[in-house]
User: Fold this.
Amino acid sequence: MNLFGEFFQEQRIRETQKEARRANEKAVDATSTTLDLRKRVDGLALANQALFEILQLRLGISEEEVLQRMAEIDGRDGVRDGKMAACVVPCRSCGRKVSTARQRCMYCGSPVADGHLFEKI
Ligand SMILES: [Zn+2]
Assistant:
């Protein structure tokens, strides 16, 4: 291999090493994000279990009632996919259509009162 060929090959190796480092950094970031999300999900599951057990003890609410309500809420957007979709509703102040996933109307800033409780968190 001539000098130019060796130079080109070394340059390609350095570029490939840079790409590998960037990919590794992205993988570390993704792992960190996944661990953070897992921690949040675990915390929410714990809070939900605690609330359910309090309701079960105080009001006699059964798991079956909770599961039925979950299915009903899941189907409100017309799709039973295990997700709670945001809805589009008219703003109570300006009347324009806003997503219930938003805390405030993007047009007038009024609070969006409709939607699911956990969309506001
Ligand atoms: Zn508005």
Q: What stands out?
A: The pocket of zinc ion is lined by residues 91, 93-94, 96, 105, 107-108, 110 (CB under 6 Å). The chain is about 55% helix and 5% strand. The longest helix spans residues 3-59.
